User: Fold this.
Amino acid sequence: MLNNREGFKSGFISIIGRPNVGKSTFLNRVVGQKIAIMSDKPQTTRNKVQGVVTTDESQMIFIDTPGIHKPKHKLGDFMMKVAKNTLKEVDLVLFMANADESLGKGDEFIMEMLGDSGTPIVLVLNKIDLIHPDELIGVIESYRNKMDFAEIVPISALQGNNVDRLMGVIKDYLPEGPQYYPADQVTDHPERFIISELIREKVLHLTREEIPHSVAVVIERIAKREGQETVDVSATIIVERDSQKGIVIGKRGALLKEVGTRARQDIEMLLGSKVYLELWVKVQKDWRNRANQLREYGFREDEY
Ligand SMILES: Nc1nc2c(ncn2[C@@H]2O[C@H](COP(=O)(O)OP(=O)(O)OP(=O)(O)O)[C@@H](O)[C@H]2O)c(=O)[nH]1
Assistant:
């Protein structure tokens, strides 16, 4: 805790929404650096990712929660628990929904869950660039009929429309408080986690529909070479089936090589030094249901 200035506001904001509503896009826009994984596949955000936005008057600490869904297996239960705990601890919840889709079962399920958290909820209707302004009123009404929101703010996270207004609303709801993080710090995640997410993102992008979101990446080693600027990173990509291993490796290793090239470029940007990246692919059957292994892959329940 660094600072305790009079009138300074600070607090924690949780972003909740169905997969693919644009939570990461919003976070990346306001934080201004690529920290949350972005993908057009559902549920790529599994761990807590913090983005910190600091101005002269406030500090907003964003928590990007996993896409909420009905639990189907252990990983689902775990994610739900994480999401629920997060809701109680934060100062404000942003419930993000698609403005270009009508209110569906998934959104109703989330609203039921949000109902008893006791935290103010701002409805953020994202992707307004995809609809005609006349349609917006109807969408707003459908949500307003279901639940009492502290505010309703339509935005386009992708194009930036109305994002400033949303930031103003968020500030209004934050309590007076200290500046928790230095102004230039945008995330408190260890580089390890960001690196694993960068690699995972490349796998998901390059394999498209063939590899489910269950793929995990474990960083085995990050080490700076003695007397050199090069950093050695070695990581294992974990899939559930032999067939998936084949897909990730690709013909004569071509796909894995491409994953490596793209991930290396991002990691070099992140670390600001040359990187030698070594990737392995391992099959671990049914890892999602083995709760005791979740920790090993970075799901740390006690952090929430
Ligand atoms: N047209 C439009 N597309 C958007 C907007 N915001 C996000 N998208 C797109 O929607 C898709 C999903 O965005 P993400 O930011 O990855 O969504 P998310 O909610 O973080 O998804 P999960 O991590 O899976 O929970 C991406 O293809 C984005 O480019 C928007 O305002 N307008």
